[in-house]
Amino acid sequence: MLEMIDHHSDRAVYQQVADVVREQIASGELAAGAALPAFKTLALRYGVGIDVVKDAVVVLRNEGLLEVSRGRRARVRSVRAVEVIAAPPHARVSVRMPTPAERRELKIGEGIPVLIVRSDRAETIYAGDRSEVLLQGGP
Amino acid sequence: MLEMIDHHSDRAVYQQVADVVREQIASGELAAGAALPAFKTLALRYGVGIDVVKDAVVVLRNEGLLEVSRGRRARVRSVRAVEVIAAPPHARVSVRMPTPAERRELKIGEGIPVLIVRSDRAETIYAGDRSEVLLQGGP
DNA sequence: AGAGATTTGTACGTATGTATG
DNA sequence: TCATACATACGTACAAATCTC
What we know:
Number of strands of chain A: 7
CATH superfamily of the largest domain in chain A: Winged helix-like DNA-binding domain superfamily/Winged helix DNA-binding domain
CATH class of the largest domain in chain A: Mainly Alpha
Largest interface: A-B, 38 and 38 residues
CATH architecture of the largest domain in chain A: Orthogonal Bundle
Structural class of chain A: alpha+beta
Number of domains of chain A: 2
Largest sheet of chain A: 3 strands, antiparallel
Helix content of chain A: 25-40%
Order of helices and strands of chain A: HHHEEEEHEEE
Distance between the termini of chain A: 60 Å
Mean pLDDT of chain A: 90
Oligomer: homodimer
Low-confidence stretches of chain A: none
Strand content of chain A: 15-25%
């Protein structure tokens, strides 16, 4: 396993660790809901410090791939049921990361952006992992 | 200034530092394009370690509020010109964080999500800080 | 153009706190 | 109760990019 990490590469070691885990998620080797090995285990496996593993996990959490909470293993984020939002003609849809207040109110996890739908008067914000916008058109 | 950080609060110190800077950005005290003080300066100002400042900056970078690069001060991200994307009726719009490959190809900064527009056949991905989607109106 | 100072990035070490199982 | 596991926070050191003179 140690061959997978090159300490002399231009790419940072913690990014290399993130790359390996990201690929394992993409390939299905780590399925949705699966727990990662403990940080300490990963650190030993790849021959790096705990901090490096922690930094790699932060990267993947901020990509929306992992759910991390204290006291339990990091888990591959499950795909959530998506609610389809109907938007009227002339509505505009944009995206950004939520503020901490929005994350609390909408119960949005780390690494999940929000969808913002603006019509003539109203502006509504949706959790990006549970919503998608359907553009209604026609007469 | 030290009164702003409570080392005995339930809220983590690095989150408190992030809160202070976030509020300075929101209030305009730190304008778009403005450089933050050096990490070392902030650490002294708030009576915390360098790592705490670094962690706070990572939080704000991942919220899309700061641009950070080696050798130069962190800067408040400037609002970018937005290109309006016309989408046909029945197109669906969703959002997520980009993969590293997408970040490279579309030149997307840290903390910036992508907009995904799917019509019957095509799926197109746009940088979330430079694009918004407009539904073309009816007849 | 070049040298040196500044600043952030990365990596490792250590310790303590707190939630989970 | 107890062990496990992650979060936080202090420290140190060096590398690499940028800026200043």
